[in-house]
Amino acid sequence: MTHLSWQEDRVTTAEELRSMMTEPSEAVVKKTISIIDPHAANYLAMSPLFFLATSNAAGVGDVSPRGDEAGFVKVLNEKQIAFPDRPGNRRIDSLLNVIENPQIGMIFIIPGLDEVMRVNGRASITRNEAFISSMEWKGKTSGLAVIVEVEECFIHCPRAFKQAGLWGHEQWPSKEQLPSVQDLFKAHLEINGFPVRK
């Protein structure tokens, strides 16, 4: 792997960064709203997957996928949405981060649609059984749910998904070409000195 020196050309100030970019159009700036309007609610109702960005008190970031039946993220009102916490690997990285730093970001995806929806806000965790039951989520939860106070909501342009050709089956690698998740998992365990059966 080639190592190139880049330190002397680091961009370190907002002014320097802005000087290299043109200003966004007024429409791009003003497309951001602070509520979940009916159009955004319809998008969420059709989304089976979102990515949750969190960080701890020290600013160490994390992103994790959350997937379920389309519409599993419930719109409580125009300022609040909620989603269930499902039993998983018990690392609870995102939930631990929310306790330290409630500011989160979410990117919602609808299969086949290149535009994504971004929601930013502040999260809280509840274990209220009556509330969780009232959401009528199918399947088992961990006994917890996350409520998000929406601060920003906007649709994001399709460029990234179009350039990636994400939904074009003809561009997908064959199953034989895909990385072996099992090999990757074992290799990372070995790096950390965890014994792995051969």
Structural write-up:
With 198 residues, the protein is an alpha+beta fold. The chain has one domain: Electron Transport, Fmn-binding Protein, Chain A (Pnp Oxidase, Chain A, Roll). The protein contains 7 helices and 7 strands. The longest helix has 11 residues, at 181-191. The chain starts with 13 loop residues before the first helix and ends in a 7-residue tail after the last helix.
Element order: H for helix, E for strand: HHHEEEEHEEHEHH
Head-to-tail CA distance between termini: 28 Å
User: Which stretches are poorly predicted, pLDDT < 50 over at least 5 residues?
Assistant: none
Name the beta content range. 25-35%
Strand order of the largest sheet: 2-1-5-6-7-4-3
Number of helices: 7
Secondary structure: helix percent = 25-40%
Chain oligomer state: single chain
Any idea how many domains?
A: 1
Rg (C-alpha, Å): 20 Å
CATH superfamily: Electron Transport, Fmn-binding Protein, Chain A
CATH class category label: Mainly Beta
Instruction: Give the class from helix and strand content and strand pairing.
Output: alpha+beta
Looking at the structure, what is the overall shape?
globular
User: What does the main sheet amount to?
Assistant: 7 strands, antiparallel
CATH fold call? Pnp Oxidase, Chain A
CATH-scheme architecture: Roll
Overall pLDDT metric: 94
DSSP strand tally: 7
